[in-house]
Each structure stands twice: as structure tokens, then as C-alpha cells.
Amino acid sequence: MFNAKRPSLEELPSSAQLLRSTILAAVAAAAILVTVVLPAEYGIDPTGVGGVLGLADMGEIKQELAEEAERDRAIHGGSDESSGLLDDVFGLFVSPAHAQEAWRDEITFTLAPDAATEIKLAMTAGDAAEYAWGAEGGRINFDLHAHGDGQSIDYERGRGETSGEGGFEAPFAGEHGWFWRNRDDTDVTVTLQLRGDYSEIVQSD
Asked: Cβ distance 48 to 55 under 8 Å?
């Protein structure tokens, strides 16, 4: 049986060394909190290091998307069970034959700086839709989500994007679509093309 050598008292760290190590660890944790965590999570950058590393932009994106999602939830209600369903229901449904179909609808709208709008598709459970969009004049933020029948889901979010395409299948009956906001300093025009199984397009500011 192997017995490890028991360290002598002289080999153990002294109280002063333990205190110094604790202080160094606390200082390092505080530095990481101020220079990395606060800029990356909350967009708070008191030292400027987060801006140099690009973390402050990341934090601002998270805060803007969170504010927009909260504002949208306040308008439409719904539960917070959506994110967990994302991987199960979101995907592309573009078969080779379907890809040859013409777009069913095309919507063009222009948003002034800080203006927003919503475009939703009225769908029943199991309906599928496909989309493609492009922005001119600047970039756009969007939140592709749905509400209805006491449920909600977030399909996709983006910030500072200029184009997108894909599809989704409605897991429940309700309004499925986009919240758009222009965070640039110039007008942005978005053209959205749609096709699939939906009964109505609803646009609201």
C-alpha cells in the first residue's frame, strides 16, 4: 500500500502566503469582471478594454435584443418556454421541387432610424413557410418569433444584418414572423419574399 509523504510544516504555505494568494485571486476576478464580463454581457465598459476587444459591441447587442424581446413579449404576451423548443422545430424545409416555386408574396418597407415594424404570417400548427429578404441603405435588426394559443417561440434573431433566407414550421397556431428595427443612422429599405402555408400577412408598427 502506497502512503504519500506527509508534508512538513515548513513545506506548507504560510498564512501570509495564503492571504497573498487570496488577494491576488480576488484582484484577478475583479479585473476579469470589469474588463470582460461587464462589457460582454451588459455593454458596460468602464476601462475601455471591452471596446478594444469587441466585447462591448457584443454586450450592446445582447442588451438590445433582450430589450426588443421583452418589449415584444409585453405586447403579445406568451410564455418563456420558447427557446427550448428552438432546436426541435426550426429548420429548413426547401425540397428541390419546392425551391423552384415562385414567391407567393413580396413586401417592401422602409424604416427611418430607430423605427420598427412587425410582419407576421397567420399559420396553423404544422404549416411551413419559406422566406428570403434583403436590406438596402443600411443594416437591420430582426427577431423571428411567434405567439399564439398560449405559446411562444423564438426562431432566430439577428443584429446589423443585410440579408437572410430560410424556413420554419409552425409548432402551434398563431402569428409567426418578424420584428424589425433600424438601429442605423440612415433609412433602411427591406424587401421580404414569402411563400408557404399561411392564410394572411399582418403588418403593424
From this structure: no
